[in-house]
Design goal:
By secondary structure, the chain is mainly beta. It is built from one helix and four strands, in the order αββββ. The protein has a four-stranded antiparallel β-sheet with strand order 1-2-3-4, with no helix packed on it.
């Protein structure tokens, strides 16, 4: 269970943030959050990959 907590900790900055817009691209979904934060979601080799900016 501790591994799951470490993985989810990288999302602490966006947890509870209001979603302003969702943009769907060809291979990626971008979630735009309040306070100029972004969450990029895509599938690579069958795995869900996410990147948050700022982290």
């Amino acid at each position: 269970m501790q591994q799951a907590n470490l993985t989810l900790a990288k999302y602490d900055g966006i947890r509870g943030q209001e979603i302003l817009e969702i943009e769907e691209g060809e291979n990626e979904v971008t979630v735009i959050l309040r306070d100029n934060r972004y969450l990029f979601v895509k599938v690579v080799d069958g795995k869900l990959i996410t990147t948050s900016v700022p982290e």
